[in-house]
Amino acid sequence: MKPPMAPLLDTLKMERVRTILNYRYPYPHEHSQHAMIAVFVGCLFFISSDNMHTLIQKLDNNIKWWSIYASLIGFFYFFSTPFVRKTIKPSYSNFSRIAALYHLPSFQSMGVDMRMNLSLFLTIYFSSVLFLVIFHIIFLGLWYVGLVARVAGKRPEILTIIQNCTVISIACCVFYSHCGNRALLREKSLGRKHSGWFSLPFWKSEEKHTWLSQFVHMHELKDRVCSSWFAPVGSASDYPLLSKWVFYGELVCSGSCTDPSDEISPIYSLWATFIGMYIANYVVERSTGWALTHPLSMSEYEKLKKQMKPDFLDMVPWYSGTSTDLFKTVFDLMVSVTLFVGRFDMRMMQAAMSKVNDQKGDLLYDHFREKDDFWFDFMCDTGDGGNSSYAVARLLAQPSIKAKGTGLKCSLQRGKLLVIGGDLAYPNPSSFSYERRFFLPFEYALQPPPWYKPEHIAVNKPEIPCGLSDLKQYDGPQCFIIPGNHDWFDGLHTFMRYICHKSWLGGWFLPQKKSYFALQLPHGWWIFGLDQALHCDIDVYQFKFFAELIKNEVGEHDSVIVVTHEPNWLLDWYWKETSGKNVSHLICDYLKGRCKLRMAGDLHHYMRHSFVPGDNPVNIQHLLVNGCGGAFLHPTHVFSNFKKFCGTTYECKAAYPSCEDSSRIALGNILKFRRKNWQFDVIGGIVYFILVFSMFPQCNLDDILREDTWSGHLKNFFSIMWQSFTDMLEHSYVSPMGILALLITAFLFIPSKMSKKRRVLLGVLHVSVHVTAAVLLMLLLELGIETCVRHRLLGTAGYHTLYEWYRSVENEHFPDPTGLRRRMEEWTFGFYPACIKYLMSAFDVPEVMAVTRNSICRTGMESISRGQAIIYYSSIFLYFWVFSTPVVSLVFGSYLYLCINWLHIHFDEAFSSLRIANYKAFTRFHITKDGDLNVYTLAVDKVPKEWELDPQWESESKQPLAHHRKFPSKWCAPAPNQDPVSTARIVDHFVIKRTCSKPS
Fold first, then answer.
1. Residue 456 contacts by C-beta under 8 Å, 6 or more apart in sequence?
2. How far is CA 276 from CA 168, 272, 279, 282, 718, in A?
3. pTM to 2 decimal places
4. What pLDDT, in 10s, does the model give residues 912-925?
5. pLDDT band at residue 361, thresholds of 50, 70 and 90?
6. Is the separation of the CB atoms in 956 and 965 below 8 Å?
7. Which helix (H) or strand (E) holds 260?
8. How far is the C-alpha of 418 from the C-alpha of 511, rounded, in Å?
9. What is the dihedral of CA 165, 166, 169, 174, to 10 degrees?
10. What is the pLDDT of residues 795-830, one digit of tens each?
């Protein structure tokens, strides 16, 4: 019962306020975030109030550079769109935003100079990190010898040190930008010699009384703040012990200053204050009992966070160039095909280990046959994204579902049996993928019993719950599973360990002992679960078991449902092949018309084909594919022309999603490919750079820039493109080899169902577009560099110009009469200045690139050293990679779209790229008292992306077995109208009549 004020507090979001005031996250990390936000907001306030009018006044005189910057920032927005709402990964997205603001063309043309702030930031940041690392090493040493409390042994978070150093550096830079490094003011009102960011033009005196002028002249308030709140702390003579360990402030005089500066730098004072506060806070925290009473540690907080939100994994990134799971999957597949296909088969091992007299007990389960009214479920291809897998598992776990269809409204009870058709986890059958992608969603949907232990191995199955003497007495849901091709990638090792030697899948009991089985259901219905392995067929021992079962147990008028993983009726039609000969032989020559339904998954959509009555005997009445258990979506329009199987004509009765929707969904490859597969940048950018590596630099661009008309520019531009390409083919080795390798890859990538001529033609067209795009981007990049060099924005100085410029400014504005810099350089053996020097080089890449390019164009490649060549090509690669990654994804995504919708190839590649979590479904069966089989397929069009703790589940009294609960699932959607239980609908319904015995 909530207190009366609870609704008001919920309305006012007081829980969030309380969380901010009493935050449970580790102290330094969260507070450094708050400090960073405060510093950033203050920085924006001062910049906007002090310099906005300056930039606006310069707009008319610099319209060309403003337009270039608008284009540049727009491009970088396009580049960084896949990383919106991502914080830490990928880290290069943050660097790209900094590069967009600092690099070409120079801000100095608009009266803005960021060099001082950037240089000062790097210097303070590196110094802070170095200082704090040394402090932590010393403090841990004191803990080791026992001079501080035991709590000090807890290592600090690296992220905490980095964030605090960032905050300190930004604060010092902002202070310098607006207050300078003034040590003493003589005969002059506030003003500083070096502004750092912007110059400060003043408006006319008569404009000072307007509201706008008062806003613009906020710099007067700023100067008062600098002089009063952040005044210099005093002279070095006041602190004799610090006189040799400080930097000094800059003297500001109306004339020349004859005396050296004796005042401590306010920048140094601010830095020392922040560092001292950090050290004091850390020492107090680790040396007293405060740390013992701290609300929660990082690991404890993450554990609590998992209790409030489900820790689901995202959809598998099939086009990731950085995923070790995918490389492992490829390796496992190669090993499986080489080792297990035709050499070692786990199914043969299972047959050999089965007792001769008890083989029936290991494979045949008949404890359901005495039921009068029976419900059971079928799903396949789960274990991809956590949200989609849990959405289906949540529906399966509900005691009943009230669903609507076209002209249909009914209440469907939870199945006593769940049959899963394989592919339990993607991309490979590892312990991690089984536990996180398969078991976790099902355990959230229906919790296992309290005595269940994840590490437990069931030696003697079935391990019937206590108090029951027979499996028939257990009234909870049970689960039987066949493996799919992904489960066979490791030779079925993980499947055997987690399915055949465990007793619980969440709240579903697992009596199964082998990878294939037969289930005898009420009213003469049977389920044959077949294991096709990687052969797409059953082995001889499996065939023998089912053949003898049909002969001895299956009645003449019984009905059989055959479950396989792969729908070979669709795949054989698509690939124009014939597979599953043993399965077809078993169905056609042994069952002889008793197979009323074949079910499979593997294709992640729903399609049902029913026979068209004719003169030929019908071996299978209905063909059903339902692979919508949680994996990415597959298209349906590619298989819309399927008509015949085993001599019988079929027609499509249902497809989900519809063929029209499927074709429309494929359009997402053009614009969404990169957003869904940003890891593909790693591969695409490198490939494009290899294609044009031999074309850098382009020194003869005069013809493009010499023309005055757009048509002349374009004509010369494409002429140089062709000339560059032909020169590359004649004189280089790297790029032609890259093009050849790409041609071979493109040819092998095209499905073998196409003829070789068409594969060659399509591969050449595909590669030609990529090569053209790469050459075009190369010329645009070179043209941009050449333009900046001609306008003397680049290539006017030399290497390390930013560092050399900063050292000169530093000597002028940060006096060092005691030689502290020299001593720091000696104590670190030159490491300190060298690190700062090369850190600044990372932000001086354009100048380095332009200077090296000028040298190559003047005297040839032989004029530069190997190290300079490596630096040049590395610099070029950084820029070219950023420019090329959106283009390569656009070209490849367009290729997939054209292939899937026009040529009907790449159905797997074109839809796995979209990583669609929506359009999920499962099939529920009901064997009525009359023996008829009602088949309902329930689907969810949109899967929730967010989940919250279900208050009904939390408030309900706990039961030893979760299937006795009215609300069995832990998580629900935040909005009731988005929850799968509310949005599930019936997309297909049909009835298979019981076979009646003929009167004698």
1. 502, 503
2. 11, 6, 5, 10, 61
3. 0.78
4. 999 999 999 999 99
5. confident
6. yes
7. none
8. 12
9. -150
10. 777 777 777 777 777 777 777 777 777 887 888 787
User: Which tokens hold the place of 998?
Assistant: 């003929």
Contact of 630 with 382, CB cutoff 8 Å: yes
How many C-beta atoms surround the C-beta of residue 843 within 10 A? Answer: 20
* Token code pair at residue 552: 């001895």
Which residue is associated with the tokens 């990383």? Answer: 83
Sheet with strand 417-420: strands edge to edge: 408-413, 400-405, 985-992, 933-940, 920-927, 374-379, 417-420, 478-481, 508-509, 504-505
The rounded distance, in Å, linking the Cα atoms of 997 and 576 is 39
Location of structure tokens 């090509």: 873
- Which pLDDT does position 299 carry in this prediction? 56
User: Which SS3 state, helix, strand or coil, does residue 377 take?
Assistant: strand
Residue 518: enclosing H or E segment and its boundaries?
strand 517-520
Q: Which has more confidence, 713 or 231?
A: 713
Residues 431-461 pLDDT 10s: 999 999 999 999 999 999 999 998 988 888 8
Taking a C-beta distance cutoff of 8 angstroms, is the pair 500, 508 a contact? no
**Assigned token pair, 521:** 């259901």
CB 372 within 8 A of CB 926: no
What DSSP assignment string belongs to 449-513? Answer: PTT--TT---SSS--PPTT-SSGGG--S-EEEE---TGGGTTTTHHHHHHTTT-SEETTEE----
Mean pLDDT of the 197-216 span: 43
User: How would residue 24 be classed by pLDDT, with cut points 50, 70 and 90?
Assistant: very low
Q: Which helix (H) or strand (E) holds 861?
A: none
The answer to whether the beta carbons of residues 940 and 983 sit under 8 Å apart is: yes
Contacts (Cβ under 8 Å, ≥6 apart) of 485: 422, 423, 534, 565, 566, 602
